[in-house]
Structure formats: C-alpha cells, structure tokens
Amino acid sequence: MITIEATNVTKTYGTGSVAVHALRGVDFHAREGEFVMLNGPSGSGKTTLLSILGCVLTPSGGDVRLFEESLAGKREKDLPRLRLSYIGFIFQGHNLVASLDCRDNVALPMRMRGWSVREANREAEHLLRRVGLGDKADRLPSELSGGQRQRVAIARAVAGAPPIILADEPTASLDAETGMSITQLLKQMASEGGHTVVVVTHDNRIFHLADRIVNIEDGRIVSEGH
Ligand SMILES: Nc1ncnc2c1ncn2[C@@H]1O[C@H](COP(=O)(O)OP(=O)(O)OP(=O)(O)O)[C@@H](O)[C@H]1O
C-alpha cells in the first residue's frame, strides 16, 4: 500500500528577486514497510521535502496524500492533528524538551495520543533500552552527549508507533557503530513493523540498508536506485 504520495510538489521561499525555488515539481511515493533514503547535495531541497511530507511545512503547489488523505487545502492549524495521526519526526538538532527527563520526552507523544502515564512510561523505558539508553531515563537532555540526545529523539519519534517515520540526517552526529545500530533500528521498524521510513542522509556508510535511494538535485528528483 502506498502511504505517502507527493505529486508535482513545489516550494518557493520568499518572493520576487529573493525567491528561492527549493522544490521544482517533485513526484515521490513510499509504501508501507519501505525504508527509503533521500540523498542529494547541500541545498538540493531534501529537508524541505521531508518537512512537507511531515506536515511541518505546506507546499507552494502540488499535493501530498498521506494514507490517501489529501493535504491540499489544509490550513496550518490542521497540520498538528495530521502529524499526530501519521508522523514521527526526527529533526536535525533533535528538538528535545530541555526541562523533561528522557523518559518524559519519549513518553510525550504517547501521552498526546491518549496513553495513560503508566503505559507511556513503560513503553518509553522499553524504547530507551532499545536505543541503548536504558540507564538514562531520569537524565535531562543537557546531561547527555549529542549522540545520546539523537538516540532519545529517535526513541521519541518511534514512540506510539506512528505509521510514518521521517528522519533528517539521523546519523550525522553519531560514531559509525551507533549510526549503524540506529539505522538498523529504523530499518527494522519498516521491515518488521510495517512503518514507512524516509531518511534524509549523506551518510554513504548506511546506503546499503535502504530499500530504495532517491536522489535530489536542485529541487528535482533526478534518479532512483537500490
Ligand atoms: N526558511 C527558508 N527561507 C529561505 N530559503 C530557505 C529556507 N529554508 C531553506 N531554504 C533554501 O531552500 C533550498 C533548499 O534547502 P533545504 O534545506 O531543503 O536543502 P537540503 O538539501 O536539506 O540541504 P542540507 O543538506 O544542507 O541540509 C536552499 O537553497 C536553502 O537555502
């Protein structure tokens, strides 16, 4: 089943002489259980595309359908509900809540989806163990290394098992071994959990784990490979 379908998506930042055409008509799709990597040079539009697929940004033109629900015509205020229903997002720079310990950061999206404190905490601890941080549940993000914070962000993105998981350079701040294990976790979410996982990456150490690699240049998809 196709879970993400983008058709002729454009995005222009600014207007007139300062306009930047970040996306120039992108067609993209991904399926249930698929692990797709988006690759391309700096400034090619990868983060913009991921943000549009993740209902963080609205496109200037074209349409995106998530589970056949069209985003065209949706207003900014509709986007949080769509994100909560469909999306787990791992941002560049992880966006953890500084005042919450790791357990509460990971539990937060499940609480927002209506889980009880007890269930959400138990699942948060389970996910923290899966990313190798079982002993850090009571720590604040400021007490962790950059790589550890990234792993907490990954646990939070997969918390509550959203059907679509989007990650922007998830291995950028990680050493080779941690990067590989995080990528394997994301791949497992796709192959065993049936999630659709789309990862923006430059990291050629992890390309071999992708089901499909989509290459973007200058706001256009130029090729696809395996
Ligand atoms: N908020 C913004 N306002 C104006 N221009 C922007 C904005 N965000 C991105 N851009 C521009 O849009 C283009 C695409 O940016 P985008 O961040 O999507 O690229 P990217 O492929 O993710 O790059 P990188 O690999 O460096 O993160 C770039 O030219 C960038 O400068």
Automatic annotation (TrEMBL):
Domain of life: Bacteria
InterPro entries: AAA+_ATPase, ABC_transporter-like_ATP-bd, ABC_transporter-like_CS, ABC_transpr_LolD-like, MacB-like_ATP-bd, P-loop_NTPase
Keywords annotated in UniProt: ATP-binding, Nucleotide-binding, Transport
Matching SMART domains: AAA
A GO term, aspect molecular function: ATP hydrolysis activity
Annotated ABC transporter domain residues: 4-226
Keyword DNA repair appears in the UniProt entry: no
Keyword Nucleotide-binding: yes
GO cellular component terms, A-Z: membrane protein complex; plasma membrane
Family classification: Belongs to the ABC transporter superfamily. Macrolide exporter (TC 3.A.1.122) family.
Name used for this protein in its record: ABC transporter, ATP-binding protein
Organism: Sandaracinus amylolyticus
